[in-house]
Design goal:
The longest helix is centred in the middle third of the chain and has 29 residues, at 118-146. The protein has a 7-stranded parallel β-sheet, with helices on both faces. It contains 8 helices and 7 strands. The protein is α/β, with parallel strands linked by helices. It has helices at residues 29-40, 53-65, 80-94, 118-146, 166-186, 206-212, 217-226, 235-246; strands at 20-24, 44-49, 70-74, 97-102, 149-154, 192-198, 257-260. The chain has a single domain, classed as Rossmann fold. Helix 1 packs parallel to helix 2, helix 1 packs across helix 8 (235-246) and helix 4 (118-146) runs parallel beside helix 5. The radius of gyration is 18 Å and the shape is globular. It binds NADP nicotinamide-adenine-dinucleotide phosphate (NAP). NADP nicotinamide-adenine-dinucleotide phosphate (NAP) binds at residues 25, 27-31, 49-52, 55, 75-78, 103-106, 127-128, 131, 153, 155, 168, 198, 200-201, 204-206.
Length: 266
């Protein structure tokens, strides 16, 4: 651990020195910011990508620049066996997993429910809700050993619905329930689970949504107006919330969803 992260006397360190943090979606905008901030706080990182190997390599080199070791793997989160293999390998490589972060999710076209074909709904549930479920199950035996934590990215649309956002809100509502379930069932083994609801930020999926026209000027202006703080956020600001909840600073917090959304879901 670096000097600036030495805990105050009597307080446990934010993260254990041994073991690693698994960040799925490490090639994405939010996953990258989380991986880098965890590395800055002394964690070794095991990160996954799906199709973006070059983006995963960029994240890996940022983790190394922060002075930590990194293990990178290609994983399709829809495949339970692939997820299990990656997490077990990461645990073996780093001698344990103390943190698991679900920061993945597919591109989601924004349409009204009446316009979304069932196939699109099925696909997003497989990538996103099942992806998180697979990670949770794969990480659990390791988190029990380390008394570690699980943190998942969700959306404020599960509190304040935004029209045309069903492909985000529906899987994330399932993910929030998985997180609550894990927290309730595994707390007795010292495992915590929380979620972070991400508002509209100018990183990650934002770029594809601007390019597709789903995030046009009208949408972005309306989003700002709907936020108490009247501005869009950044992946770095989201990562601050995730890293806090994952760390021992949040050691008596479990089963919660923290909205990092500029005050959208109020
Ligand atoms: N950005 C926002 O404004 C915002 C707001 C609310 C919620 N969120 C949620 O936050 C999460 C991360 O979003 P982001 O903005 O960081 O998006 P992003 O930059 O597009 O990253 C998405 C990540 O998910 C991975 N992924 C997608 N499908 C996968 C699969 N089947 N198996 C394994 N990995 C898969 C991608 O891998 P590859 O790139 O390697 O293919 C990438 O690492 C998503 O769940 C998103 O819905 C984002």
């Amino acid at each position: 651990m670096t000097e600036q992260h030495e805990p105050a006397v009597g307080r446990p360190p934010d993260f254990p020195v041994s073991g690693c943090a698994v960040v799925v979606g490490g090639s994405g905008g939010i996953g990258r910011a989380i991986a880098v901030q965890l590395a800055e706080r002394g964690c070794n990182i095991a990160l996954t990508y799906f199709k973006g190997s070059a983006r995963a390599d960029e994240t890996a080199s940022l983790v190394r620049s922060a002075g930590q070791e990194v293990h990178v793997g290609q994983v399709d989160l829809r495949e339970e066996a692939e997820v299990g293999k990656f997490v077990d390998e990461a645990a073996e490589h780093f001698d344990g997993v103390h943190t698991a972060i679900y920061a993945a999710g597919p591109y989601i076209p924004m349409r009204f429910i009446g316009q979304q074909p069932a196939a699109a709904f099925r696909e997003v549930m497989e990538h996103d809700a099942f992806g998180c479920y697979h990670l949770m199950r794969a990480a659990l035996p390791h988190l029990r050993k380390s008394k570690g934590s699980f943190t998942a990215i969700v959306t404020p649309a599960i509190r304040r619905y935004a029209v045309r956002d069903i492909l985000s809100a529906a899987p994330k509502a399932a993910i929030e329930q998985l997180v609550k379930g894990l927290a309730a069932e595994e707390g007795r083994f010292g495992v915590r689970a929380n979620a972070v609801g991400v508002g509209v930020i100018t990183d990650g999926l934002y770029h594809a949504l601007v390019e597709s026209g789903d995030f046009d000027q009208r949408f972005l202006d309306a989003s700002r107006q709907a936020m108490a703080l009247r501005r869009l956020g950044t992946a770095d600001e989201v990562a601050e919330g995730v890293v806090f909840l994952a760390s021992a600073r949040a050691r008596w917090i479990t089963g919660q969803t923290l909205m990092v959304d500029g005050g959208y879901a109020l």
